[in-house]
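Appendix B. Chain record.
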Amino acid sequence: MESKDFLQLVLSRQSDRAYDIERPVEREKLERILEAARMAPSACNAQPWKFVVVTDHELAQKVGKAATGLGMNKFAKDAPVHILVVEESANITSLLGGKVKGKHFPLIDIGIAAAHISLAAESEGLGSCILGWFDEKEIKQLTGIPESKRLLLDITIGYPVKEKRKKMRKTKEKVISYNRY
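Structure tokens predicted for this chain:
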């Protein structure tokens, strides 16, 4: 793959909030997306995540409804797949390093895994949206995630039905500098 292919993938990926409810996501595509997530880098190779994949239609609707509220995420109930990202314990090296540096590496690691999921979905012709707004307690009850665990993200996956939007980003000058702040 040439670097422009990867940049094109990044440029075409967007948060999709409308999915084709008649078109299920193929198992092979889902498996490749999950493999991309599993292979994501993590601090001290801790891999502090578990991916709970909701593909059952009825359960996906219930999970989607638990992600709505205050006018947010109304589309989620129509997503055919939800990848729930649960924070698991990091290994001792990652935990100690995090204490020394004042950083919680599992959150960074899970962000990287989420990026892998959304880019892998795009490469499979699927849309995705990373959600942080949802009823954590409700989704945990629906899916059997232990009460003691943190459910950090719900990533919706499906075939998008809307056109690509123009990507709005800050200028390079505002976000990039070389050698000095």
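Further analysis of this model is presented in Appendix C.
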